[in-house]
Structure formats: C-alpha cells, structure tokens
Amino acid sequence: MKKKFLAIVSMAAMLLVGCQSNVERYGEPLIFTTGTTTGVFYSLGAGISTMWTNELEKRVASQASNGSIENLNLMRKGEANISFTTVNIAYEAYNGVGSFEGKQYEDVRILGNLYPNISHIIVKNDEKYNSIEDLKGTSFVFGAAGSATEVESRLVLEAHGIGEKDIKANYVGFTEATDLMRNGQVEGVNIYTGVPAAAATELISTVDSKVLSFSDSAIDHLVEEYPWNFAYTIEPNTYDKQPEAIQTVGQYSTIVIDESVNEETVYQLTKELWENLNLLQKSFSIAKQFSPESAVAGTADIPLHPGAERYYREIGVID
User: What class does CATH assign to 128-250?
Assistant: First the structure.
C-alpha cells in the first residue's frame, strides 16, 4: 500500500511544474502550489493532493514553486487556489505589509496549520560564539532570498541587537549554507524548519558546530511583536553534542486557501486531511508532527476559511 501511494505521489508531483494562469477558482483541478522540487513542501504537497483527489473524486493538482511568497502571489492573482506557506508570510499578505506592501491579499484564509518551523541558529563551535549577540561583525546565512527563513532571520538578529549593516549577509538555501560553513566561509546560519531538522543534523555531524539559545529578552520581543511566533524548547540530545535544552522561537507551516473556494469543498478537504493523517504519516515523517489541535493555533488573526472552521467546530477543536 505504501509503495503504491508513493508511486501515485510521484506521478502527481509531475502533473504541473510550470505556472498556470487564469485558474477557474470554482473549477477543476484545484491548483495547490507547494515549493521547490528539493524541499519538503513539494513532495508533501504532491502526497496531500493525491490523497484529496483519490478520496474526494475532485482533482487537486500540485505545482512546484519558489515557496511561500510566490505561492501567495499566485493565489492573489487567481493562478492558484491552495498553497503552502508559513504564517508570517500569510500575515504579510493578509495585511498588505512587508513583502506584500501595496499588494494586499484580503481573501487568503487558513485551512490548517501543519508543523512548527523552528529557528536553529548554528555557529562554529568556538568560544568566541556563546550567544547570538556574538555574531555581530561575522558572515551569516539568512536563508534563500525571498524565503520565510530570510524574513525570520532578519527579525531574530534584530531582536539580539544586530542590524543588516552589522553583519555580512549571505542568501542561500540549507544545502549551500552547510557547504559555506564546512568551507569556513561563514560563521553562522539559521536552519529554519521542523525539529529534528535533517539539515541541522547534517551540519552538526559534519562541521564542528553548535546551536545557540536565544536570549530571554529576544524571545519576549519576538513573541510579543510578531503574532505568528511562539517560544519553543529544543529538548536536550535532539542533536549530537547538545546536552542542554535550546531556547528558541518558531511558527507554523500552514495550508492556506482562497476565500472563493466554496464552503462545502473546503469542509471536505479539511475533513479528509485529518481523517487520513495515518496514511500521510506512513509516507512522510514530518506528518507525525501534525495534529488537528495545533491546526488553529498561532494563526496571527488570519481568518479560517468557513469550511475549515466548520470542521474544527465539529470535532471540538474550537468552540
């Protein structure tokens, strides 16, 4: 069964890799934009699309993209119906700020949060770097340009008193960041993904490095000022040579959907997502972090789609 499911996922991932324009918002297929072909969003989106198509007899086609910001722009322009993003990017789109200044997208709605992305500030295992403040004047990888990681890294450093002028910024993905650390070209990087993070595990196991805790004041600032953030503890021994807990912050990856998709369709999509969770967990380890109880947490006041809200009320997640 697992092999059959994975084969179907692979076929679904190949359905759409370019951008379709003029999507019929009530028609089929529903277009689900995901992420780059090497990332978690891409394969997971293909799996969820396949599951929805099989269970609902309503075609949902996954489509590769450059990630959160592009996904919300495609939805805003009517070229997609459903997308993966992080809550901070959905917040910017809904409120017309940040990356969406002058391009407000008021019709974005939450279908459900999936798993927390956690900031791992990883530095060389050197006595010079015992706090994030010690990174001032160094070279640091913010994340890929235009990614949620880049946005969050900027906020994390600012919360520790480090502006962009105080640091040499690099904008690359996790794989390239590991290479830069390995080659001694940067002193630190933010690996912003779920826990345990494969990229963090690889980096720590191949480069003499360590994860830094946030200061208490920085955590307070990040949680109070940015409604998508929450405090998070990385438990001891999650990573090699990590005997103590790491204090950091995170936010949820989420599925968003356009308000125009009708309520009954969104109710069924939400219901099938959670009632087929065990199937997804067999094929995607990250799905073990999904729970309907977390689906409506940390949404930064972005509205739930009425169809999703109906399901969460039905199962008692919200009153």
Answer: alpha beta
